Structure formats: structure tokens, C-alpha cells
């Protein structure tokens, strides 16, 4: 059984081969790659050279949260992480993160991330926040998403306790998960950029801005005041 399950939600993405290559290059070798094809109509042929490296599942289109939940259902690992099909992991991402989680006996851990463009050139670092204390982290998390989704690693047991990704939130499912999880678990941080976040014209963040704003308002109404007195 693999220690880590990496889920890649895939939908019509021309960068998928680079995501898989970044996983094949990981220092950590005790992991599985689960690609969930969310009803793609193009670029699926880019997966052909990697057939022996991945476990492939195809489903009808339903959004990233549904693809992640299908991946979680199929996963065999003790730890979960996910990689967007247009992003990359640095080679030490899985090894450093699982070592940190085991040493701290952590249930959830996240890292910082670098922005890259279409040519993979790094531009700047994101999610490299320093907090005065854990309550400061919770208060900032309650106001905006300060965690890059691909940077998170969590024990599979977390899903058993609090549920999987909420499919009601098509674009902010990750932020909703972190808010829900923070009510029960401590988030550990590795202050190192181990994920490369690709900015490009076709990304959902650019295409669905109005929908994202609507969902964020809905989330704030749902969780407002729940972190005022601290949880962990």
C-alpha cells in the first residue's frame, strides 16, 4: 500500500504532462498518482506516455471537487495531497512534507508556493505568511484563503472525521475545506515554496471571477465569528 496518494483532477488541460513529470521526479517514492478525468474532451492523449505511472479514472464532468472526491474514494494511501493538472511539485515536496508530518504527528500540513507562467519561469512567492501565533493564523484564514490548495497534505482519517470536499462550492471547495478542518485540526506550516502555481489565460481563477466572489461571500456568511475565540 502506498504511503501517499496524489490526486490530479484533469479537465482539458494542456499542461498535464508537466504535472505528472514533476511527480515522477519526486525524491519520495512511496506514493501513487491518481488521475481523475472530469469528462475531458481534449488533451487526454497527453496521458498516454504515463500509463504505467498512473491510476486513471474517468467520470462525467462535475467540477474539481467531484474529481477530488472520486480520487479520495479510489485512494489507497495514508496521506492525501492533490496537484492541479497545470501546476508542479518541486522534487522534495512529498518527502519534506511527509517527514514533517510524521515528526510533528500532524494531521494537516501546508507549504508556500511560487508563481510560474507558461514557460515555468518563477516569478514570485505566495502564501509565505508569518503569524504572531496560531490565533493570528485562524483569524487571517477566516478572512481570506491563505493556503494554496496543492500545498496541503493531510491524513486520510481527516476525511473520515469531517467529510470530503463540499461539491456545492465549485470554485472555492479548497477554502471551504480548510475552514471546516481548522475547526478541528491544527495546521502545520513548512515555510518553503514546494509548489509551483501556474498563471495562464485559461485558468479557472480568471474565467470565473464573478462566481468565485459569490462563493466567497457565501463562505464568509457560513463561517463568520466561528474563529473569534480560537479553536485549537
TrEMBL record:
Question: Sorted alphabetically, which Gene3D superfamilies does this protein's record hold?
Answer: Spore Coat Polysaccharide Biosynthesis Protein SpsA, Chain A (3.90.550.10)
InterPro entries registered for this protein in UniProt = Glyco_trans_2-like (IPR001173), Nucleotide-diphossugar_trans (IPR029044)
Residues annotated as domain Glycosyltransferase 2-like: 5-157
Q: Which Pfam families match?
A: Glycos_transf_2
Question: What family is reported?
Answer: Belongs to the glycosyltransferase 2 family.
Q: PANTHER family under this entry?
A: GLYCOSYLTRANSFERASE, UDP-GLCNAC:BETAGAL BETA-1,3-N-ACETYLGLUCOSAMINYLTRANSFERASE-LIKE PROTEIN 1
Protein name (record): Glycosyltransferase
Q: What organism is recorded for this protein?
A: Cytobacillus gottheilii
